What does this fold into?
Amino acid sequence: MTNPLFDLTGRTALVTGSSRGLGRAIAEGLADAGAAVIINGTTAARVDQAVSELAAKGHQSRACVFDVTDEAAITKAFDALDAAGIHVDILVNNAGIQLRKPMVELTTPEWRSVIETNLTSAFVIGREAAKRMIPRGYGKIINIASLTSELARATVAPYTVSKGGIKLLTKAMAAEWAASGLQANAIGPGYMITDMNQALIDNPAFDAWVKGRTPAKRWGMPEELIGAAVFLAAPASNYVNGQVIYVDGGMISVL
Ligand code: GCO
It folds into this structure.
């Protein structure tokens, strides 16, 4: 028997970048809590694979292939959902890229690409979702932040700036949309085992640094974000707005 505070039955969740990694784990976790999930990515084969895997587990899921930096594709995707009578009740702005390079070597197009993918996309997709959530008086927006929303690490400047922006965009969304019955919050993952971090995991010095710097003395697993995601997607968080929940083994809390 699911506690109604954490029950997503009857709700539909769009999770960007959910064909793999953190987004894929979050999408499955929301589905396990009762949500119908919309899987997004840029590669149709990967998206369809994730949809098939979820369907095989008895979950209601559908594909929505678009690049989060392509505003025309975003508008077209939301128009198609409208036409199908599908209301996005829960939006998880997860899609993101990482680019590790010293700033003096970083090109301006490289900078812009990270900011567009990680930050501007959350604004554009958030705006399109909110336009539809506000008239219904209900909506949950969950932006994926980072430890770099608070602290910088050398060689990941555009990612850091984008995630710092995600933290304050979340608060801006709360400022403008809370009165309409929407809740906008963020999850700040710590160092998680993902494809994006594989180069770091494989680097013995970096691996040792993460395990030494993290109170939990280990990397996090993508599925360890599910609890915070379900909480922020569910009625349990109806009076929570503009917050960032760090799921980081304690890293952000210690020197
Ligand atoms: C890096 C990592 C980090 C983590 C995560 C930490 O290069 O330092 O990619 O950015 O992915 O964001 O919260």
The chain has a mean pLDDT of 98.
